[in-house]
Design brief:
With 445 residues, the chain is α+β, with helices and mostly antiparallel strands. Helix content is 25%, strand content 22%. A hairpin with a 2-residue loop joins strand 16 and strand 17.
Amino acid sequence: MGSGKTHNILFDEDATMSPLPRDSLDDSLSATRKAVADMLEQRNPTYSLPQPFYNDPRLFQVDMEEIFEKQWLFAGMSCEIPAKGNYFKLEVGSNSIIILRGAENKIHAFHNVCRHRGSRLCLKDKGKVAKLVCPYHQWTYELDGRLLFAGSDMGDDFDMSAFGLKPVAVKSAGGFVFINLSENPEPIDDFLVSLEHYLSPYDMDNVKVAVESNIVERCNWKLVIENNRECYHCSGSHPELLNSLIEFDDTDDPRSTGEYRDLVARKQADWTACEVPWQLARFGKRNRLTRTPLLDGIVSMTLDGKPGCNKLMGNIPNADMGSLRILHLPNSWNHFMGDHAVVFRVLPLGPQETLVTTKWLVHKDAVEGVDYDPARLRQVWDATNEQDRRLAEENQLGINSLAYQPGPYSQTYEFGVIDFVNWYSETMRENLGVPASTPLQVASQ
């Protein structure tokens, strides 16, 4: 594998790929977008991205517009809004979104913006309301977004029907809620059908969030995802996680051993007998579902490998269900076991700052202190999240250096990272107007 040298307007053409001054990129957004398209066309698809993709504020703005304002994003769990009037708030860049449950059990999503003078409506992260009332001038909206009250001073000819809340596309399946800020969202129904199927044994209408954590990682969001998409670093960094997790999850993985393949065959026979879905399903590079065993004799991602919750989820027949791994790009990965689930959400806060939210789910009838101990339930992933935070932040600091240049991914250990970065590159190029059918060019070696 060569140096992966690329040629574009942000980099010199010498062998060290020293960055040109930042002002070599015009401050106009159109110039930034062209520079992004050029860099993506010239990059080596098996190498990490050029430096600006990880730290440039102008490129971060393009990320938000072309990825986070156009892709389906994991917002939260439907169990978080169990009854009419329950809502939670989500911040996607400068866009504040309300997700709520309205009449007839329907889930709605709206921009958290009053149609009067633009004030935010909901100020708390979550809650329950009868109506949505603006705290500024008390304009009042029904849970389906219709304007109900605008005071008596708007004039007799004021048409309230023209000033309902701005809707956001929302879909729910398998207990997951997804939103899309685009006016013309891309199709996602094929993935949602499979998601519903794979999670049907968990009876997702009857789960609850047992505990939640939010950490801010001082790194670009793509570094958070890249770190998640490989376990190359696990043996040196995650002793708690490796008490239960097998580093790979596919018998076709080049690292797969005969012992692992035998374990998989045995567990798949058990899951088939229990009528629990396990087959690997892919939807391009964006979505992936697969059930894979934990270490032999281990049934849950707890420090001792024993169930973290005594009451199993849904209709799961026993605790030994391995881990149903669910990937949804650009902002979520998940583990569903027999006794509990762990769901992750990633939201960019800035070019070098990312919010990572982790939620532990259990059966809604499980009793804290009786069926589960929150501290024990979260022990493994609290440790793992903190370890990953340090790794990603050190990665960011190194990338910020003058010495950084794109480096080669291991096609054995980091193929998941390659898939993510190529998905990102292809999606970005398509959204920037570069034909998706145009292959990514391999840079000169």
